Amino acid sequence: LGSSARPRTDRALGASVMPSSDQWRWQKHRFIACAFAFVSGYVDIFSVSRWRVFVTMMSGNAIFMGRVLFGNEPSHGEPHKLSYYFVVIASFLLGSISFLCAERKFPNRGASIVALPFTSMMLALEVIAISGLIDPLTKTYSVLVLGYTPLFGILSSATLNGRLGTTTTMATGHLLSLGNLLVKRVLDGPLSLADWRKTCMSMQILLWIILGATVGAEVQSRVAKDTRGHGALTWVAPAMLVLFFAHDHLSKPRSVVKALQRRRRMETADSNQREGDQKAGFIQADVHVPRHEFDNDDDEEEE
């Protein structure tokens, strides 16, 4: 009876209720990656309309830099000089380096720690933009992008070097991954579980980047007061901070979460144990033979 009740308890704990199960971890990874991808697509719509640069990825800015290498012509759609793009790329690199240094000192906590000052700065700059204190046509306004870019340097470095192990701001890498997996499926047969999850992750990140850009364009054209969308990024800073905390949780669950998980597992184990004990008690009750029957058998033998 004991051996039959115990495996049922373990299976219940492992497959149905344990928050740290493999399937549950995969769902968390996918949700956080898609959320980051949505934010990236959304933000770039406004960064391009405000400053004519990208804040989530530097490939486009590197191309813009090469375009004005021998001088810029504002009338030809080249509003910035070479030095401007160089500083924007440097600020992105600053965010990445900040994360790596924080991660060395505070393992599995770097993103959430270093993101706090940068999200605060981004929120403050968005409030300034809403207030209209800075004229969008001045050079001071064009410098505001430096308060946004480092946060996405943190994002790119954290997602690529952390538990997600993938970028959530660029589509090129995911397109290459999908092509590789497609060839593998055709030539080598069915994909493994790990490869199938990579395929799902790449497809969903691509879709959420596009969805974020679509929503950003709709907000810009229908909701925002002007094409620069002042105020449309107010929610991004707190949302990014929450996502960075969730990202760090993937590597090392926080003490509060671990305590809740431990308590839930203990309660479930106790409940299953009581259920097993009750079933065992009912079985014993069914096979119980009254003592007086044995006494009658002994009397018959003596006679």
Number of helices: 12
Overall shape: it is globular
Give the helix/strand class: mainly alpha
Could you tell me the mean pLDDT? 81
Estimated helix fraction: over 70%
Topology order in helix (H) and strand (E) letters = HHHHHHHHHHHH
Strand-residue proportion: under 5%
3D structure, described in words:
Helices cover 75% and strands 0% of the residues. By secondary structure, the chain is an all-alpha fold. The chain contains twelve helices and no strands. The protein has helices spanning 2-17, 22-51, 59-67, 82-105, 110-131, 139-143, 149-161, 172-188, 193-223, 236-251, 255-287, 291-302. The longest helix is centred in the C-terminal third of the chain and has 33 residues, at 255-287. Helix 3 packs antiparallel against helix 4 (82-105) and helix 4 crosses helix 7 (149-161).
Question: Which key terms come to mind for this protein?
Answer:
single chain, 303 residues, mainly alpha, 75% helix, disordered C terminus
Task: Walk me through the topology.
Layout: H1 2-17, H2 22-51, H3 59-67, H4 82-105, H5 110-131, H6 139-143, H7 149-161, H8 172-188, H9 193-223, H10 236-251, H11 255-287, H12 291-302
Helix pairs in contact: 1-11, 2-9, 2-10, 3-4, 4-5, 4-7, 5-7, 5-10, 8-9
Q: Would you summarize the structure shown here?
A:
With 303 residues, the protein is mainly α. It is built from twelve helices and no strands.
